[in-house]
Amino acid sequence: MSKIHVTTSINGDSVEYLCEPDESLLDVLRNHVGLTGAKEGCSTGDCGACSVTLDGRLVCSCLVLGAEAEGREITTIEGMADGDALHPLQRHILEGAALQCGICTPGILIAAKALLEKNPDPSEVEVRYWLAGNLCRCTGYDKIIRAVLNAAAEMRGA
Amino acid sequence: MIMALDQAKKDFKVVGNRMTRPDGIDKVTGRALFGADMSAPGMLHAAILRSPHPHARILNIDVTDALALGGVKAVVTAADFAPQKGAFNQDTLDNCMARGVALYDGHAVAAIAASSPKIAQKALELLKVEYEVLPFVMDVDAAMRADAPVLHAGRKYRNLPEDSAPNVSNHCEFGHGDMDAGFAKADRIIERSFKTAATHQGYIEPHACLATIGADGRGDLWTCTQGHYMVRDFCAAFIGMEASQLRVTASEIGGGFGGKTTVFIEPVALALARKSGRPVKLTMSREEVFRATGPTVSSSTDVKIGITNDGRITAGYANLRYQGGAFPNETMMLGAMTAFAAYDLEAVQTIGWNALTNRPKQASYRAPGAPMAIYTVEAVIDELCQELNLDPLAVRLKNAARKGTKASYGPTFDEIGLVATLEAAQKHPHYSAPLGPNQGRGVACGFWFNFGGNASVSLAINSDGTVAVTEGNPDIGGSRASISMMAAEELGIPYDKVRTIVGDTNAIGFSDVTDGSRVTFVVGLATIKAARGAIKILCTRAAKIWGIDADAVIWEDGAAKPSGHNAGEFPPMTLAEIAKVAHKTGGPIAGHYEANTDGAGVSFGVHLVDVEVDPETGATKILRYTVFQDAGKAINPDYVEGQMQGGAVQGIGWALNEEYIYGDDGRLQNPGFLDYRIPVASDLPMIDTVILEIPNPGHPYGVRGVGETGIVPPLAAVANGVSQAANVRLYELPMSPPRILAAIEGAK
Amino acid sequence: MVKVILWGSLRAAANGLAEVEVSATNTREMLESLIKTHPELQSTIDNGVSVAIDGQIYKEAWFTKITPDSEVVLMPYMAGG
Questions:
Q1: Strand order of the sheet with strand B620-630?
Q2: Over chain B, what is the mean pLDDT?
């Protein structure tokens, strides 16, 4: 079976690629479009390290086919900062020492951003349940949750 | 060598603050490059064929059809590797690629390099392997029986009794004192047996590497590892290269915890690169990581402890039986040494065993051997306290090891922080907070040695007064920031003027792997020494410029100054000023240091946890958790807290959910994050931390390692909390809901 | 003469003694002396041992000084973690 030609939008840029029918969006991002920020931790949708948004919806890119991106809008970690101005979430994760090895960090940032777009004033419990799909093995989550709550407060102007 | 505590140094300008880490920006923007993020032009994709049998002789591997498939460029098997001197090296290599016999479900049998991942997978299906299936054994106690299926004949340690079972590969014993007399003094004795399952480090980044070997035989390897010198030395030996021919670069690493202190795929990728003449990228899937990397041992332990009515422990005994998979290992030594390490005992005896099983070869996991050993001792002490109605922290204080105590593993302790952590826990509001129905509080203390070892550091002063530090230890916890901080502290310059990078194996001399909670201690010490070397040169240059003796110049607040009025009246010259004219005063200025460092300080910790057990579902909720740990000197408190919290949460997972589940067919049933359930954000509360600082006499700033101790107390702390909450004792980990329910039912 | 303390499972190689006396001024001399007087310890020592002197653990350093009143404890080679 021949490859599929896909036209899509990634971080606001129009992108075209060829992919196998069974290639995941994660594979496409990493191997064909040069965006290695989304990580493969499990390829079965259990760890969240591959999180991106698809038309504004938080998804595991390992569970989306590359072909499904046709005509859609994708945002990845590479699109989160505005030039060299970090998003408040990125800044708070950094300043709050909320990362150790950093492999889960892109997925957590994408997921947290999606949460705050939906709910700008989440409680600690709400943040924890929203991020339950993003595994972190290094931090024990404490500093991550604090960073997200602090970023949310800053973004609300609180 | 040992560099003693600088008693005079009291006011730190940089050290002790919470500085932002240098690699942080790349990690929050997705720019940081991890093991699987590298590519090379013309790169091939590799795939590994793995044994579906837990134990089978490999009679034949027919590669004809696989090689004939379009796009397949190379196939390797054990025949493509060099025979090794020494059992340790041969075992490590045999684990990377089965030699004649597949020893566990998932053991690598052959590998393919092809022009696309799809073709590589297709080629695997075309490899024809003839197996002769053999009987297998999975459980440690079963493996220690005389009639168990035998894995390797004749691999016993010399000190094992002649009549010990064939799979028993290692044995050790530690302790001192008269055990009979000790138990005779006790008012109450408890004997219990415990089991713990194998767990995995659970790093989110699977192993991944990119290997190239040129026609001239020189190799380049990019890999996520805790030790690129270790990788170089293993790979060079396995594929028959000299060390200088192979340059290894450590990528950013997405978690290791000990599981990446050895090699699994790197030699295979290099062999494929050599055979195909092309770069080869080899990554593991999550399933492969669980089946075929290095989980912990599983254990079966008997413990007997005697205590007086007023809480003095009179004797402690433990018999620890570990299985570490299909190759011998000495983790049981670490278990036997640490089991009673927190206690001052007149009579103590620990016996350790290792048995071979048809399971993956164990690798280190954060304080290897200690969590499962200390779990059993802390659980029995807790049970004794409950029976005698004694306060668990008071009993630990009464029996705590302190300076001058003869450790259960032999040496006499110098200054240690156990009493300080116990007292801090006792005073903390957590310890006296009220508990509700179905809730319980668990207490446990823990210990780890922490290591020294080899490190090389090079420190260059740039013409503009900034500093470049090159070191050889992959950064798994924020060590680059701490190293920059120590360099800045010594040189007296701002933190942001220092950049620390991890060089490749060609850049500087050998460094031991990042493990043993050693990097901030060892590499920090080497950095301090390298900085002092550079300072000497800076002073000499200033002396030349002023025309005075080099001994008449001192370094203070980032500048060279005459040591006194007699030396001359010259205004101080800052580092930047001296650096600016370095080329005119003799040349580039740098310091370096290479040493095998000793003097690491042991680290004690105490954990308090409140849990609630649902009597209908057996589910356990962690309500509150506080970690107390002695860091000696916290260079960067943020990262020390991070280690304490991370270790505690790994321990919580180990206590409540995580285990390797094998079927009756000897195959791993849960090789994925869905069924190998590690803690998620919604399982946990905030993890509170209290850092104690009892300086380590063996480091100029008093640093003690902190990375590992945090995983040691939680197994027992959570188990003790669950016992109090559910009003029934469990003696097996993990305490998953079905097990807790069964125990509650059984107690009715 | 220096007293060297052996861990439990090594004592069998030293006729059951927990402490052995040797003549040495540094770690290397101590290990060589142990092998001379108790040849059954050789395989363990060749595989690698660490030494604790006055409570401080030395992974493998040969030239660490030992004085007659040092507490010297043989330890398993500290590795991995």
A1: B439-448, B603-613, B620-630, B687-692
A2: 95
Residues of chain B in contact with residue C56, where contact means CB-CB under 8 angstroms, are 2, 411, 414, 598-599, 698
B329, B413, B450, B598, best to mutate vs chain C, most C CBs in 10 Å: B598
Question: Do A and C count as touching (3 or more CB pairs closer than 8 A)?
Answer: no
CA B302-B303-B305 angle, 5° bins: 160
Whole-Å CA distances, B393 to A84, B378, B425, B584, B607: 51, 11, 8, 64, 11
Using CA coordinates, name the residue in chain C closest to B175.
Answer: C8
Quickly state the pLDDT bin for C59 (edges 50, 70, 90). Answer: confident
Q: Is B57 helix (H, G, I), strand (E, B) or coil?
A: strand
Q: In which band, very low, low, confident or very high, does the pLDDT at C57 lie, cut at 50, 70 and 90? A: confident
Q: Is B273 exposed, middle or buried (0-12, 13-18, 19+ CB in 10 A)?
A: buried
Six-digit token string for B58 = 């490999």
Q: C81 falls in which pLDDT band (50, 70, 90)? A: very low
What per-residue confidence (pLDDT) applies to C79? 59
Task: Inform me whether the pLDDT recorded for C75 exceeds 90.
Answer: no
Question: What CA–CA distance (Å, rounded) separates B322 from B331?
Answer: 8
Q: By C-alpha distance, which of B444, B439, B427 is closest to B717?
A: B444
- The arrangement of strands across the sheet holding B348-355 comes to B168-176, B348-355, B313-323, B298-307, B188-196, B732-733
Angstrom distance (rounded) from CA C7 to CA C19: 9
Q: In whole angstroms, what is the distance from residue B168 CA to residue B352 CA?
A: 11
Asked if B2's CB is within 8 angstroms of C56's CB, the reply is: yes
> Cβ contact (<8 Å) for C76 and B337?
yes
Mean pLDDT of chain A: 97
Please confirm whether the linkage preceding B734 is cis (ω < 30° from 0).
yes
Q: How confident is the model at residue A158 (pLDDT cuts 50, 70, 90)?
A: low
pTM for the full model?
A: 0.95
Q: Which residue has the tokens 């579906």?
A: B52
Residues in chain B, pLDDT under 50? none
Output the CA angle A56-A57-A62, nearest 5 degrees: 120
Q: Which two tokens stand for residue B191?
A: 């004997």
